[in-house]
Structure formats: C-alpha cells, structure tokens
C-alpha cells in the first residue's frame, strides 16, 4: 500500500469536510481545527466562550457534512440522568416495559452549559464519555460510533452553576477558549445571516469517519516526541525537577497521565489534518495549552496573584525544550 497517496486522499477528504463547514461558519479556524482533532483522536471537547460565537452551529454543520446524527442538550438545574441516557417506559396495553434511549445516542452531542446541571447529571454524561455505553435497568446499550461530546461553559455567569470537579474535567481531551470574531469576520457573519441560506452538502459518511479514526492511529509518533509529552506533564507535577522551582507554590495538583496520552493522540490527529503520516514537534506544542489548561489545579497563591493556567503552561513550555525535528541534525551538518 502506498502510504503517501493514502495520506493525500485523507487530507483531501478532511479539506472537503472543512470547506463545507466554512461555507456556513465564518472564522473560528482554530476552534474548528480542534474539533476535527478531537474527532480523529476520539476525544471530547470542553469549550469556553460567551454565547453567540457559533459553537452549536459549528458542530451541527459538521454533523451534516459527515451525514452524522447531531443532538443538543440544554443543561438546566432540574435535569435528571434519565433525561440524558434514557429510561424504561411501561406500556399499559401490552403490560411490558420498553427502553426509551436518551439523546446521548448520537454521533455528535452538544452539552450546552454543562455547569448548569447538578453533579448527578454531569457524572452520567462523563460516564458515557469514558465507557461509550449506558446501562439502563441492568441492560447495556452502546452509543453509536463515532461519538464526540462537546460540552460548553459560559464564563460570564457563575450564579446557579455547579462547577465541574477537577477529576471529571480530566475526562475532556482538550479545553478550548473561543474568542470574539474580528471586525472583518463579523461583517461577513452578518452578510451571511441576512443573505440566502447556505445548505451543507454531505461529503463523507460516518463509516469514512471511522476509517479516518483508524488511520489516525497509524500516524507515526517518534519516541522523542512521547518523551517530550512526558516531560511537559511531569513538569506540572514536580516543577523542581525541571528547573522550575518557583512554580511549585502555584500548582496544587498537576496533570494526570491522561494529559500525556491526549498530547500524543492529538499530535497524531493534527499531523494527519496537515497531510502527514508522521507527527512533528510543532504538532504537539500547538496543542499543549489546550490539553493542559483545565488539568492544572492552581493554589490560592496563584489565584491571588492573578495567574492563569495558560501563563503557567507558557512558563513550562519555555523551560522544557521540544525535540529536534527528524533529520534536522543532518541539515545542520550539511
């Protein structure tokens, strides 16, 4: 099998999917790239951004482009786990119970304002994310494949919200911050909204997406890159060992091994999106802030000094060197 042509076909298909989504969604390139990385690496996304930044539109359009199912759940304080995963219903005519599956049985699930629902509901969703299955009255039901959960958090209001516990936030592969569009982008957004509606043409199927996920696992990651991921994550736990002694007082708990796995899987997916069959150091370093920002538990000292997880991650990245690119030493010698 010719790997280069296979990689080329993959890159073309990914381009077609992105092109379809961009016909509807203006800007948000970075966010869209992270959504694609999560789908390929079979991870889940936590998205933080104010309302009206096309988070729902992006996922819905993407689902249409890959002929996938899309469902959106608005999380509210009165939600119960059965509203999410499903329940048993009694049929009076037949005198039997039947299972009604909940909205989690879909390909792309948008959990809107996840921090508005109580802990019971949050943990029900996080269980589905981890196990990719649901147990209703002793019966196990698997969710469709591919399966991606994108949960959103609104950073504005904190009243009436239930913050996600640190251990549960760790289940998300990445936390992405979505910002306001530029003036030019906003102009185009308004023009598109007031103009004729754009219909999305499906360019791939969920089967093709599953094949892309399998191909993503074949992308080569050099051991030196895995070592880089290990060093970065280790620096969040024991900064002293990595020459970052002053950072120890700011971090109460560092990132778990899930962060190292997410960095490696994410670098693979990003390399594949960029049309390569091997990962480079920049594929990994581009994702470090997204993978680590929600996994650091900051101390009161860090909060009192107004330090953000991103600022600490930047300091760690400045101190922990990335490995040289493959064959770079040969270029230098030449």
Automatic annotation (TrEMBL):
PROSITE patterns: SIGMA54_INTERACT_4. Keywords: ATP-binding, Nucleotide-binding. It comes from the Bacteria. It comes from Variovorax terrae. One of its GO terms (biological process) is regulation of DNA-templated transcription. SUPFAM superfamilies: P-loop containing nucleoside triphosphate hydrolases. This is MoxR family ATPase. Residues 14-154 form the Sigma-54 factor interaction domain. One of its GO terms (molecular function) is ATP binding. Belongs to the MoxR family.
């Amino acid at each position: 099998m010719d790997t280069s042509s296979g990689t080329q076909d993959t890159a073309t298909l990914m381009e077609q999917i992105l092109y379809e989504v961009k016909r509807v969604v203006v800007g948000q390139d970075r966010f869209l790239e992270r959504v694609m990385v999560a789908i390929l690496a079979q991870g889940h996304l936590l998205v933080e951004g104010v309302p009206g930044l096309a988070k729902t539109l992006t996922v819905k359009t993407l689902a249409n482009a890959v002929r996938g199912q899309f469902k959106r759940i608005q999380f509210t304080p009165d939600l119960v786990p059965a509203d999410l995963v499903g329940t048993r219903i009694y049929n009076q005519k037949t005198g039997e119970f039947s299972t009604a599956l909940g909205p989690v049985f879909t390909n792309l699930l948008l959990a809107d304002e996840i921090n508005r629902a109580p802990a019971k509901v949050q943990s029900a969703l996080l269980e589905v994310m981890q196990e990719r299955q649901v147990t209703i009255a002793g019966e196990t039901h698997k969710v469709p494949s591919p399966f991606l959960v994108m949960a959103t958090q609104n950073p504005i209001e904190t009243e009436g919200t239930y913050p996600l516990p640190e251990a549960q936030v760790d289940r998300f592969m990445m936390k992405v911050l979505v910002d306001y569009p530029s003036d030019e982008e906003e102009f185009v957004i308004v023009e598109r909204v007031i103009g004729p509606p754009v219909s999305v043409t499906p360019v791939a199927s969920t089967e093709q997406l599953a094949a892309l996920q399998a191909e993503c696992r074949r992308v080569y990651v050099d051991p030196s890159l895995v070592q880089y991921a290990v060093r970065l994550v280790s620096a969040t736990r024991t900064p002293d060992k990595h020459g970052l002694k002053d950072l120890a007082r700011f971090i109460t708990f560092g990132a778990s091994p899930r962060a190292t796995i997410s960095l490696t899987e994410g670098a693979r997916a990003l390399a594949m999106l960029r049309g390569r069959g091997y990962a480079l150091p920049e594929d990994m370093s581009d994702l470090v802030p997204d993978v680590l920002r929600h996994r650091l538990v900051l101390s009161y000292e860090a909060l009192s000094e107004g330090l953000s997880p991103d600022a600490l991650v930047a300091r760690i990245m400045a101190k922990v060197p990335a490995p040289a690119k493959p064959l770079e030493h040969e270029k230098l010698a030449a």
